[in-house]
Design brief:
The structure holds two protein chains of two kinds.
Chain A (H helix, E strand, L loop, with lengths): L4 H22 L8 H31 L1 H4 L5 H24 L5 H24 L9 H18 L6
Helix pairs in contact in A: 1-2, 1-4, 2-5, 4-5
Chain B lengths: L6 E5 L10 E5 L3 H7 L1 E8 L9 E3 L15 E11 L4 E7 L2 H16 L9
Antiparallel strand pairs in B: 1-2, 1-6, 2-3, 3-5, 4-5
Chain lengths: 161, 121
């Protein structure tokens, strides 16, 4: 399970791998003269991202199977690793979108699917994470006051329709 | 003023004008927002103090233009009713559809234990 070392290590390595590929995008040659380099980068990228997508789907499936075992455990390390991994995938997706290159379209689709799966995994962990109660925060008070002010204004007859 | 889903606006602190305004992401749709010139928003903060399981991490790449603050996150459980007339200045930003969908899924799952399914227009 993710609370243990095996997943946390894999997540860390996935992050490093995706980050290496992100750096390659900066060197993606625009000209068709560099056809071989372009093909190599695309193949490498698609292969890494396909593997990552398989891993992400497997992770979600495994977490769903073991969801009862996760209840109340300290899952913060896994949550942090997943957040980092999502961040680096978002950076790669952004680099691909900015390159505006049709040849990278498959990579973009693979990334979207992977990010969706990582978010699903993150939500499972967050739902089951051990959460200690805290006092009402200033932000929560501010939030309630905002809603109250808005409701009072609406109740007082400021209808516009 | 037309307020659209995914847009980001600044709203003043409700009871202390000395405190810095917070940006909000608009969650509700234009039809609902227009009805009484109100909208449902989720608060963005960059305070490390409030990072927890109800935080949805936000990065510059999720928006049409950079957010300008590191460690920004949406406080998913602090949904609030906001008045259009309280908006400070112009629209700050707009969230990209793919990431807005992830935010809504997370709010549905973690705050309501509901699966929000996106409707096509």
């Amino acid at each position: 399970m993710i609370a243990e070392l095996k997943y946390n290590t894999i997540l860390k390595h996935q992050r490093e791998d995706v980050d290496k590929n992100r750096k390659l995008i900066y060197f993606f040659p625009a000209s068709h003269v560099f056809h071989l380099i372009r093909s190599w980068i695309i193949n490498r990228l698609n292969s890494t991202l396909s593997n990552q997508l398989i891993f992400a789907k497997g992770l979600v499936s495994d977490l769903k199977d073991r969801v009862n075992e996760l209840e109340g455990k300290d899952l913060n390390i896994g949550i942090d690793h997943l957040n980092d991994l999502i961040k680096v995938n978002i950076l790669l997706k952004d680099s691909i979108e900015k390159s505006n290159n049709q040849a990278l379209q498959n990579a973009d689709i693979l990334l979207s699917d992977t990010i969706e799966n990582y978010y699903t995994a993150l939500r499972i962990l967050k739902r089951k994470n051990n959460r200690s109660s805290i006092e009402t925060s200033q932000l929560a008070k501010e939030s309630c006051r905002h809603s109250l002010n808005s409701l009072q204004t609406v109740i007082n007859g400021r209808r516009t329709t | 003023m037309a307020v659209e889903q995914r847009e980001v606006y600044l709203l003043p602190h409700p009871f202390d004008s000395q405190v810095e305004e917070h940006p909000f992401i608009v969650l509700s749709v234009r039809e609902a927002n227009d009805y009484e010139n109100t909208f449902i928003g989720v608060m963005i903060t960059s305070s490390e103090k409030y990072q927890d399981d109800f935080s949805f991490q936000l990065t510059d790449e999720m928006f049409e233009s950079p957010l300008g603050k590191k460690n920004s996150h949406a406080r998913m459980h602090l949904l609030q009713l906001c008045l259009n007339e309280e908006i400070k200045g112009r629209r700050l930003n707009k969230m990209k559809p793919f990431y807005f969908r992830q935010l809504m899924k997370s709010i549905g799952d973690l705050i309501f234990h509901f699966d929000f399914i996106e409707q096509s227009n």
